[in-house]
Structures are given as C-alpha cells and as structure tokens.
Amino acid sequence: MKRVFCPKCDNQLSFDETKYPEGKIIAFVCPQCGSQFKVKLGRKTVRTKTGEEEEVKEPDFSCGYISVIENGFAFKQDLPLVMGDNVIGRRNKDTDGVDVPIITSDPSMGRKHCVINVKEDKQGRLIYTLRDFPSLTGTFLRSVILGKKEQARIEDGAVVTIGATTFILHVPEDRVE
Question: Domain 65-175's class?
C-alpha cells in the first residue's frame, strides 16, 4: 500500500500502487476537504517552489534509525536519524522544527515530544542520548518515565514510548562495539 497526503489539509490517503503501471497519473479527491490532486507513480523527483524538478533522496540510515512498532493509529515506519539533535514528534503540516516526524493521529504524542542526540566518541562509535522535549505525557524508556531535564544514554534495541506510540532504536551494524 502506498500512502499520499492531501496537499491542502494533510489528510493521509492509501491505495494499492501495484494495480497501476509505473508512470501512470492517478487523480484523488480528499474525503476530508474535497480537494482534488494528482500523483504520478514511479517518479523519483519533486517540483520545488521555483518550479524546478529535484531528485528525491533515499533515506540515509548511516547514523541509525528508529522503528515505530506499536501504534494503533498508523503503520510501521522506519525513520532515519542524523548527527546532533533529532527532535521526534507527531507529523503535522504546520509544525516546524521536527526532524523525525511520526505519521500518526495519536493525540497523546506531542508535535515536539522528545529528542535523541547522536554524537561520535573518539573511537568512532555512535553515542545516543534520549531526553523529553518536554512533553505533556512524558517520555518512557523501558516503561520508566524520564524526569524533567533528565538525559538517558540509550543503545541498540532501546524501547521508547511517547504517548501511545512505541519505537525501537537501531544502530548501524558497522558502528556497534
């Protein structure tokens, strides 16, 4: 199943892309706002605001990633992390400053919920630190809530819960001790 978002209201729509040939243009009508838009299948470019086409880059998982595994509101997602602070929160069309947006309608997850900091030590190993943004519902590491201004070092396989959503940290295999 392929997912697209309405450009007007950001409503998520799903369809089976295997029923259509590559290059086919599919027209949609958003059931939420009634907006009409088209999507071209198999296209690896996007049109920028200046009207130029830009190639879509594949996600870079070299600094690790999180897998959203328990989310009754959406679907499994693998989201890449980058060096430095990675602000994690609920995806919203109008939210700026979220580096790792989780697609969900979970009202208990904040738009900016927690932060995973990625840095490299002197031996070239990646170090991951988790902290609450702060959020209203808190950030849980292995079912224990992080305190205000508390930072916790996390490693490969760390289970983190924000709102009603749980994710697991995955460290690149070549960066594990």
Answer: mainly beta
